[in-house]
Amino acid sequence: MKHFILASTSTLFGETYLAYLQPAMNVLYEGVDEIIFIPFARPGGISHDDYTSKAAEAFAQIGVRVRGLHTFDDPATAISNAKGFFTGGGNTFLLVKTLHEQGLMYVLRDAVNNGAPYMGCSAGSNIGGVTMSNTNDMPIVYPSSFDTMGLISFNLNPHYLDPIPGSQHMGETRETRIKEYLTQNTTPVLGLREGSWIYAKGDSLTLEGALSARIFEAGKEPYELPPGSSLANLQ
Amino acid sequence: MKHFILASTSTLFGETYLAYLQPAMNVLYEGVDEIIFIPFARPGGISHDDYTSKAAEAFAQIGVRVRGLHTFDDPATAISNAKGFFTGGGNTFLLVKTLHEQGLMYVLRDAVNNGAPYMGCSAGSNIGGVTMSNTNDMPIVYPSSFDTMGLISFNLNPHYLDPIPGSQHMGETRETRIKEYLTQNTTPVLGLREGSWIYAKGDSLTLEGALSARIFEAGKEPYELPPGSSLANLQ
Predict the structure, then answer these.
(1) Which residues contact B159 (CB under 8 A, 6 or more apart)?
(2) Which terms are listed as keywords in the entry (chains A, B) (predicted)?
(3) How far, in Å, CA of B44 to CA of B51, rounded?
């Protein structure tokens, strides 16, 4: 049974790492004593070891041990045998490049589809979509493909931001960028605001958190979906 | 003699398209009566024809005719024979994908290196750098390479934005993103604020406009360069 969380952000303003997600993590990882952490997105260039320590500290609070994927001699076998996963945020291009280079993207997808609980935040959520094409990140490295796990049948835009009223900046708004995507593609995009996450359990797929999400579909005006909405038919 | 402008933005807040650049364009395109416009970045999904009309209207004010690159049967030959170029902003991924697909990126580079005046704005400036890796745009399509013309020996971040004081948004700042780039690459990055442009004439390369630029180099703290500074040694 598929069981995963794809969250907009790891951290809310003024809170500690993963704090707001802890109740949801208690449910997701129930009965799991150890997970694999995927540190490849390296926010701010942090090392794999340091990033894994940061995740381990947060997971210790729910009684789950953490081992970094980079520490295994045979990461593909480690993924296939793992009891659960967490992929942290950072740079999506670096994350996707590393997973494809090591041949791990679809090994991870299969493990999650076979029932190992998965949580992603930000870049770690982007790879739950069909492609990484709606990341906000800078293309600091060139991945061999933008294709990602496709745990869901749409794409995510984490850290979704509404246009800022009165802004004099002439760069594109988030909405403009996603609309440009839909001139070239037909996959729907869900703008996931900070504090929101998607929760999948078996055939159920819902929007969680206190905020609505903004949905972008080709040929339609963007619209809002309230928290608690089913996303099972978005494709 | 190389002669080009790479501008942060086409339009300043409250102004018309290319208005603030008109004095610089008068110098750049002196003696030129027709240029090729490269419309491939398609901001907001605008058609190649409509985008070319918009450029033509602005260039009419300096007495220069405009023809869209998409209208030529043999665009490579057209580029080689052209008297000058302008590449408009929009989505850098779409621009770079189209230029590589049609085998035009290095034909254009050679024409500019051979002396045809070139102006780029935003995405059109990104392709003047070594790679497109410091664009702000969303990866809506997958280019065959991130390599660009390398008219300059560094990369550009157009529409450069300083961190917003007091922001509660947890997405990365522009500075964080560029610093992440420098954990994976050694090419310097110039953060070009709206209203600034780079001007090359022969061996001279300077920062123009009223604002300073922010320079990011591997292993150094970012620093500001005032307007008028030479950029000839940034590499």
Answers:
(1) A169, A170, A171, B8, B9, B122, B136, B192, B193, B194
(2) Dipeptidase, Hydrolase, Protease, Serine protease
(3) 10
B175-197 mean pLDDT: 96
Domain range for A91 is 3-225
For residue A197, tell me if it sits in a domain. yes
Residue A148 placed within a domain = yes
pLDDT, average across residues B80-98: 98
In terms of Cβ atoms closer than 10 Å to its own Cβ (0-12, 13-18, 19+), residue A13 is exposed
CATH number of the domain that B217 lies in?
A: 3.40.50.880
Q: What are the tokens at A34?
A: 């150890």
Q: How many domains does chain B have?
A: 1
Q: Nearest-CA distance from A1 to chain B in Å? A: 32
ipTM, interface predicted TM-score of the complex: 0.94
Q: Would residue A232 count as lying in a domain?
A: no
Helix (H) or strand (E) holding A96: helix A92-101
Task: Tokens for A134, please give them.
Answer: 């709606």
Q: Are A41 and A68 in contact (CB under 8 A)?
A: no
From the list A11, A135, A138, the residue facing B133 with the nearest CB is A138
B122 classed as catalytic: yes
- The answer, for B9 touching chain A at a CB cutoff of 8 Å, is yes
pLDDT value at position A201?
98
